[in-house]
Amino acid sequence: MKRGEIFQLANLALVVVGSDRLGKWWAQTREMALVNRGGVLGVLPGWWWSVIVVGVSLGLVWLLPKLGKGRLGVAVVAAAGLSNGVDRIVYGGVVDFIHYPRLGFVGNIADIWLMVGVIIIVAQNLQLRT
């Protein structure tokens, strides 16, 4: 990876983590947040999710230099996972505050970034195959 690309991915990671942390801070100061102690979408509660989330995120960061065009999406997913991983370590669960009543769950900005990252990864993989 070139130095400029590393700088761009690091800045993107700062935007992802920063926007999530700012949103969670805002929700907590207005008592709008709740702590989701379960796994993804509140499923599978337990402390080991912290280990899995942080481990997978760090693994993705390690993998970044070895990837080709998939770096952008992987960087977004890793940064969002690390931000949620910080919550799991600090609060014992993920701070959620965005309510999706029709879908029946509560999320946060990192969850949105995770979906964006996955969409980028899928789009880039489809592009590589054509």
Explain what this protein looks like in three dimensions.
- By secondary structure, this protein is mainly alpha-helical.
- The protein has one domain.
- It is 65% helix and 9% strand.
- It has helices spanning 3-29, 48-63, 71-91, 109-129, and strands spanning 34-36, 94-96, 98-100, 105-107.
- A two-stranded antiparallel sheet has the order 1-2.
- It is globular.
Question: What would you say about this model in short?
Answer:
With 130 residues, this protein is mainly alpha-helical. The protein has helices at residues 3-29, 48-63, 71-91, 109-129; strands at residues 34-36, 94-96, 98-100, 105-107. The radius of gyration is 15 Å and the shape is globular.
